[in-house]
Amino acid sequence: MELLKQKIMTDGEVYEGNILKVDCFLNHQIDVPFLREIGKEVHRLFSDCEVNKILTIESSGIAIGSMVAQEFGCPLVFAKKNKTKNIAGDVYSTPVESFTHGTTYNVMISKRFLGKGDKVLIVDDFLAVGNALKGLITMVNESGAELVGCSAVIEKGYQHGGDKLREQGIRVESLAIIESMDHITGEIVFRN
Amino acid sequence: MELLKQKIMTDGEVYEGNILKVDCFLNHQIDVPFLREIGKEVHRLFSDCEVNKILTIESSGIAIGSMVAQEFGCPLVFAKKNKTKNIAGDVYSTPVESFTHGTTYNVMISKRFLGKGDKVLIVDDFLAVGNALKGLITMVNESGAELVGCSAVIEKGYQHGGDKLREQGIRVESLAIIESMDHITGEIVFRN
Question: Shortest Cα distance from A32 to chain B (angstroms)?
């Protein structure tokens, strides 16, 4: 998505250790009018798949998930990272290792909101090593729902999470795939 | 908002201890087309206030925040509950006691995204004792931004957080205010 690549080059900041900061428009301050365009593009890519549920993970997947669900006119479910008082009853649950935080946490979804008959599109802001997506896919499979595919706003191609999922036959559509970044020059190279 | 009251009565579940579960449409599974109507109503209430920034707190404020920001055509900023690698530099920070979880956590906002010239509307899914809103208001005041008001989807009137803020002269518009609930009969009484 050309508009997104331009936005990343204009507003993104590259730091040592292959860190791309896009918190001015994607995951702290959110450029909602821009994110709406992202939602429309994801809808265009999966428009023929009869998607009836969008699935994401808290927190930074929720805004993009809302925009995508709006285009499909369907509900969004977000997986929770901690059990709260307000999730009662049976849940799907799986451990997810956070690459960013260096910890493992349990992710859960109430069984009431995912199951047979659901055609699920998973969305998230970032796809790097792919642990969050793998956890969500595990729960979709356990639930008996059908996985239509996955879509990330930004994929870090050099961390290979997306390619590993594609090798397993899962449709993964990222709107921008970064092949390499240089924190000294600030250069960002996208996959064609 | 009549549509919301009906939704709460149809889909909400009342449990012992004054717990209202609306996780089927508001804070786990999200009825995005419905939430869009909520966003339009919040926009209608504050349409003459020149709002140029929506502020909320992760996680369950993000979806409603996105819908409200969409109507105003402005950015959404969500306060983070934990410091991550991806927030660099100076932040506003304040402790918030969680009534639901019985813990205190630090909430923070990057100084780059809140400051003089911002006319801020704070939104959240629930308003009970009001600790989250109070924390957000503290940071808005510290930043030099102007607070236009606060809007919660559901206010638990019997926990008085909203009324205490109103007594301080803060404009608080909740779309449904619950005066009492009965977990045996399931009855929910709204404030007129």
Answer: 6
pLDDT at B61 over 70: yes
B4 falls in which pLDDT band (50, 70, 90)? very high
For residue A72, give every residue at least 6 positions away whose Cβ sits within 8 Å of its Cβ, in sequence order, or none: A43, A51, A52, A54, A121
Identify which of B21, B29, B66 has the shortest CB distance to residue A77.
B29
Please name the member of A23, A29, A85 whose beta carbon is closest to the beta carbon of B86. Answer: A23
pLDDT band for B35, please (50, 70, 90 cuts): very high
